[in-house]
Amino acid sequence: MTTLRLVLGDQLSLDLSSLRDMDRARDTVLMCEVADETTYVPHHKKKIAFILAAMRHFAQELRAGDVAVDYISLDDPGNSGSFAGELARAVQRHRPERIVVTEPGEWRVRADMEGWSAALGIPVEIRDDTRFFCSRARFARWTEGRRSLRMEFFYREMRREHGTLLDAEGEPAGGAWNFDRDNRKPLPAAAQPPERVAFPPDATTRAVLDLVAARFATHFGDLLPFGFAVTRADAERACAHFMRVCLPHFGDHQDAMKTGAPFLWHAVISPYLNVGLLDPRTVVRAAEAEYAAGRAPINAVEGFVRQILGWREFVRGIYWHRMPGYASTNALGATRSLPGFYWTGDTRMNCLAQVVGETRANAYAHHIQRLMVTGNFALLAGIAPAEVEAWYLAVYADAFDWVELPNTHGMVLFADGGYLASKPYAASGKYIDRMSDYCDGCAYDPARSDGESACPLNYLYWNFLMENESRLAGNPRMAMPYRTLAGFASERRARLRADATRFLEALS
């Protein structure tokens, strides 16, 4: 049976389920760059370039293994602009007896796939994506009978199931399942993060950069300099550099932020994991090996493993378990429009200016910048979830719907009412001051809670608690701030509300 095998831009793995039984003498792999996928949100120029360059290099890798590849570039004059259109053209060229695909990472693409067989008149087999530790069916079994879903319990079960970071008796290495308490130290002023490995563009990547510069000039973000790994070999080099140089110091300061240091000791390998250039099982085993060899401490290794075997798998499970209705929930009734400074960085709040500026430059921000700066502001200001989610999806190179939506919707914005996270991750400016140097030289004072010179995060925090008291006061994890709020005199409440109103009205 001749088979046409479609490989999407985030499926760049040699062991992809749709490629496993390939007959090299008869089958063809179809890869296509389509306009629909580059513009449904205004993706960062670096993100588009990264994915297209990685796709083209993957096609070269397949061809080097004697695989027939039909590759449609974005500037192909006959390009239809959609997956369905390119499949229809490919069926006319190759006359396959069937089409095989691996399930996509986005609900809208999966829904589109369901209609391909009828439209094309040939069978379309949609296979499970086996590149994850936890299949969709396995996650569904885990949810059965549970009143609430918490990542920590899922993570422990995955650790046991996959034999990860366990001692000889099957207990957690280091004597605890979670070392997050050891990973919240502010960064010492004299700390010097390491230089990060970058990869000069080759001819294939330079051609992509020229294409992106010409076609997506109005999109957000800086295209150059471009240093992403776009081949499997270079992604593995980036991962090895993290394991050797950064992982030993990753744990202590993973929640810290520093002006001019966008990467600190973070791995910055999520783009490579999410497009398939790195295998999560291999990455987790490599981190375990660093701990076993005594080269990295348990708090660093466990914190890193938790991000991959814990959060990454958990949010994917939530996404497929709850979509499509999950995206439309809005538990806190947030409706304000996304401020323009999320695109320009033009704000007197230095923390936001720094993070948006680094996002514009790198198509990257680490998890605390996303959660506690851009995310925290959006939560406190009541920005409409769909607008925040579209921004996160557009600006980060590692953002795909299955991972971006639950993280933003549930973790950042609490828009699911606590289905994913047990409390809103709301914080005042004092948190930013403690965990970063962003407040140094800022126009606002993190020590003041009200008045023109006060940090807006301070009065927005208390205003958020007051506005959502009926929704949140019964949450046990919010008991402490609500006890503090209960002690505020009515005059102080009125000042905080007035400052918040003044600030928020100026956003629109």
Task: Give a verbal description of the structure.
By secondary structure, this protein is mainly alpha-helical. The protein has 3 domains: 3-127, Rossmann fold (3-Layer(aba) Sandwich), CATH 3.40.50; 136-201 and 231-322, Serine Threonine Protein Phosphatase 5, Tetratricopeptide repeat, CATH 1.25.40; 341-507, DNA Cyclobutane Dipyrimidine Photolyase, subunit A, domain 3 (Orthogonal Bundle). It has helices at residues 35-39, 45-64, 83-94, 107-113, 116-120, 136-143, 151-162, 203-215, 232-250, 270-275, 280-292, 298-322, 341-344, 350-362, 367-381, 385-395, 401-412, 429-435, 456-467, 469-472, 479-486, 490-507, and strands spanning 3-6, 28-32, 69-72, 98-102, 124-127. A 5-stranded parallel beta sheet has the order 3-2-1-4-5, with helices on both faces. Helix 11 runs antiparallel to helix 12. The longest helix has 25 residues, at 298-322.
C-alpha Rg (nearest Å): 24 Å
Strand order of the largest sheet: 3-2-1-4-5
Write the CATH homologous superfamily of the largest domain. DNA Cyclobutane Dipyrimidine Photolyase, subunit A, domain 3
**Total number of domains:** 3
Structural class: mainly alpha
Strand content: under 5%
CATH class of the largest domain: Mainly Alpha
| DSSP helix fraction | 40-55%
Order of helices and strands: EEHHEHEHHEHHHHHHHHHHHHHHHHH
Compute the number of helices: 22
